[in-house]
C-alpha cells in the first residue's frame, strides 16, 4: 500500500493539512472494511474479516488504487448465506412483494460507469438456506481508471422487464444481505480465445457461465433454472445439459427478530427481582431451544425422505425428460439484461438423456439463458415424491 506525496483533494476541495490518502498497490486486495484504501461505500455495513455486507440495493464501494499503466483484472468474491436471508427480511420494506428472502439474487456488476457483466447467487434445491459463493472477474484498461485512481464497483438491480416466469422467482432488492469478502486487483494476463468445446466446470471457472454457485466436484448444477452468460463474438453458442430429479428441501423460515432475554419495564413499574429475571432468561433460552429442535427435526425428516425417494427419482428422470422433450415442453430462451429482444433458443436431444441448447444470435451484453419446462405435466408419482426437475451444465461449445 502506498500514499500520495501531494495533498489529496476530495471532489476539488482540500487543505494542505489534509492527510494523504493511502492507495492500494497492484497486485493487491481489500479483505476488510477497515482498510483505509476503501475510501467510500454506499449501502454497505463494513466488516473486520470481510469487506462488509450490503444493506441496500443498488450499492457500491470505491477503492483507491496506485497508478497503473497496464490493464488490470478486478475480482469480486461474493457470498450469500443464512444471514443474507435474515438481512433481506429485516431491511427490505414489508410493502415490497413478493417476499423472497431465500430467492436467487440476480445482479448487474457495474464499474467506472459501465456494466461489466451479471452474477447470480442461488440456493440449491437440497439446501435448507442460502449457502453459496461466487467469484466474478472483469478487466479494466488504464484509460478507464482516472488520475485519482478511484476504482468504483457497483452491484445494481436488473432494470429491464424480464419474462414473468423468470422475474417471479427473483428476490427484489437483490444486493441486500449479500456479503462482499474481497475486492482483488491484479495485472491482466492474456486470456486465450475460447473455441470448440469445454466442460461445464471449466466454463464456470473461465467466466463463460454463472449458475448460482460453485461446482460440486465435477458437477455444475444450474441452481434455479437459469444461468448467466457474458457477451460473446462467436457465431453459435451451444450449452449441453443433463437433467436430474431431486427432492426440494424447502428453505427454513427466517427466524423472528430475537427480543431481549429480560423484558424492559414500563415507566413506573417495579423492577424485576433476581428470581423473575432468572425465570425470564430461562424461558427465552427454552424458546430458542424449541425452535432449534423443530428446525433440526425437519432437516432429519427431509433427508430421510430424500434418501427414500432417491431411487424413484433416478428411475423417473430419463422417462420424464424423454416425455417432456418428445412433447416439445422443454424450452429455452436468451434474455438480455439490458437492451435487446428475448431470443428463443433451439433445443435438441443429445446422447445419454442430455439436451443441447443453441443460440444463433449470441448476446452483445450480459444475458440469462432461461430454461423452462411444463411443471404441470410432471407425472403424479413425481409430484407425490416431491420431485423437482433440475439441470446440470455438461459443456459449452463455441463455433
Question: What's the quick description here?
Answer:
By secondary structure, this protein is α+β, with helices and mostly antiparallel strands. It is built from 5 helices and 23 strands.
Give a written overview of the molecule.
- This protein is α+β, with helices and mostly antiparallel strands and 399 residues long.
- 20% of the residues lie in helices and 33% in strands.
- The strands form 5 sheets. Strands 3, 5, 6, 8, 11 and 13 form a 6-stranded antiparallel β-sheet that branches.
- The longest helix is centred in the last third of the chain and has 53 residues, at 274-326.
**CATH superfamily annotation of the largest domain:** Galactose-binding domain-like
Number of strand segments: 23
The largest β sheet comes out as: 6 strands, antiparallel
Shape: flat
Mean pLDDT: 88
Q: Using the coordinates shown, work out and report the CATH topology of the largest domain.
A: Jelly Rolls
Rg calc: 25 Å
Overall tally of domains: 2
Q: Approximately how much beta-strand content do the residues carry?
A: 25-35%
Summed up, the helix count is 5
> Per CATH, which architecture of the largest domain?
Sandwich
The oligomeric state is single chain
